[in-house]
Amino acid sequence: MENDHGELVDLYVPRKCAATGRLIEAKDHASVQIAIADVDENGKMIPGQTTNLPIAGFIRHQGESDDSLNRITQELGHSLRLARKQFLSMPGAGFHF
């Protein structure tokens, strides 16, 4: 709902699961929203531009969230595997113990 100034005033804005298209309920505390940074042709992050992918809790419970994210990002033109490979090839990237 919007007020007279065109500002959104709802307390809860429903989200749709990116994997199934179903609405994510307000009580679904297992759901997550993952922000993937948009990159330019050189592979550098574009500041302030992200793609948000909400994933419902029942998808995570089934263990299908990683497959769903790979499928969705490939449909959107991103490639998580390529980004992961580029990140790990950077000096100083990865885990340090």
From TrEMBL:
Keywords: Ribonucleoprotein, Ribosomal protein. The keyword Ribonucleoprotein applies. GO terms for molecular function: structural constituent of ribosome. It comes from the Eukaryota. The keyword DNA repair does not apply. GO terms for biological process: ribosomal small subunit biogenesis; translation. One of its GO terms (cellular component) is ribonucleoprotein complex. PANTHER family: 40S RIBOSOMAL PROTEIN S21. Belongs to the eukaryotic ribosomal protein eS21 family. This is 40S ribosomal protein S21. It comes from Malassezia japonica.
